[in-house]
């Protein structure tokens, strides 16, 4: 259900964060490569990464300076690349079983899944849907981008009862309940629940 434009990045997932995100930008067509990599075939992700300098850095937010990489990247473009890479990580766990309080890598509850997906990009969220809601910047559903979090209030309490990962096109990935597995659903999957969105910063 997702276009999943980052599938090739799985080939180089063991490399450092910045080269992987540059490959993401190349794949999405959001970055013009320097002359040293411009002639590489579009399918040669490993070759593209090998031509880049090896960089190591902690997780970068959209408000921090863009690393020197021979190209001008805007904060918005950097944010898109990060969000898409988080979605790509989450999609590798489709079909994994739900297990209460589990945080992966083989089973998940809802907040354990979203925490695990973001952790692959170096950012550690709390393992609790309410604590994750407190940690994100609330946004409107109209502002959703891949990698944002979706929260459901279904039982009338003050804290969200569920959290999932937005993929795009009105679709989310989540670990829904004890009878399910990590799967795609509409963002309106929980009939009668209040749904809100948040952006990881």
From TrEMBL:
Gene3D superfamilies: endopeptidase domain like (from Nostoc punctiforme) (3.90.1720.10). It holds the Pfam family NLPC_P60. Residues 80-201 form the NlpC/P60 domain. Keywords: Hydrolase, Protease, Thiol protease. Belongs to the peptidase C40 family. GO terms for biological process: proteolysis. The lineage of its organism: unclassified sequences, metagenomes, ecological metagenomes. The keyword Transit peptide does not apply. This is Unannotated protein. GO terms for molecular function: cysteine-type peptidase activity.
């Amino acid at each position: 259900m997702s276009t999943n434009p980052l599938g090739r990045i799985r080939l180089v997932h063991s490399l450092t964060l910045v080269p992987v995100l540059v490959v993401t930008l190349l794949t999405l067509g959001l970055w013009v490569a320097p002359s040293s990599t411009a002639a590489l075939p579009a399918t040669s992700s490993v070759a593209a990464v090998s031509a880049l300098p090896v960089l190591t850095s902690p997780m970068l937010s959209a408000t921090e300076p863009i690393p020197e990489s021979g190209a001008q990247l805007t904060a918005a473009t950097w944010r898109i690349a990060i969000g898409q890479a988080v979605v790509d990580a989450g999609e590798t766990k489709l079909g994994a079983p739900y297990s209460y309080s589990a945080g992966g890598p083989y089973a998940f509850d809802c907040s354990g899944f979203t925490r695990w997906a973001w952790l692959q990009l170096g950012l550690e969220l709390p393992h609790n849907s309410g604590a994750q809601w407190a940690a994100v910047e609330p946004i409107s559903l109209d502002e959703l981008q891949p990698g944002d979090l979706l929260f459901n209030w279904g039982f009338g309490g003050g804290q969200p009862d569920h959290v999932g990962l937005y993929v795009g096109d009105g679709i989310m990935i989540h670990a829904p309940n004890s009878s399910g597995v990590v799967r795609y659903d509409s963002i309106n999957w929980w009939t009668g629940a209040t749904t809100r969105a948040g952006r990881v910063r």
